[in-house]
Amino acid sequence: MSHLVHRSLRSDPPIAVSGRGIYLYDAEGREVIDGSGGAAVACLGHAHPKVLAAMKAQMEKLCYAHTALFSCESAERLADIMVGHAPGGLTHAYFCSSGSEGNEAALKMARQYFLEIGQPQRTRFIARRQSYHGNTLGALAAGGNAMRRKPYLPILSDAFSHVSPCYAYRDRRDDESDEQYVARLAAELEAEFQRLGPDTVIAFIAETVVGATLGCVAALPGYFKAVREICDRHGALLILDEVMSGVGRCGTLHAWEQEGIAPDIQVVAKGLGGGYQPIGGILVSGRVIEGLAAGSGAFMHGHTYQAHPVACAAAVAVQEVIREENLLENVRRMGKRLEERLTERLGNHRHVGDIRGRGLFWAVELVRDRAGKEVFDPALKLNERVKMEAYARGLACYPMGGTIDGRRGDHVILAPPYTVTAGQIDTIVERFGDAVEAAV
Ligand code: PLP
Question: Superkingdom of the source (predicted)?
Answer without folding.
Answer: Bacteria
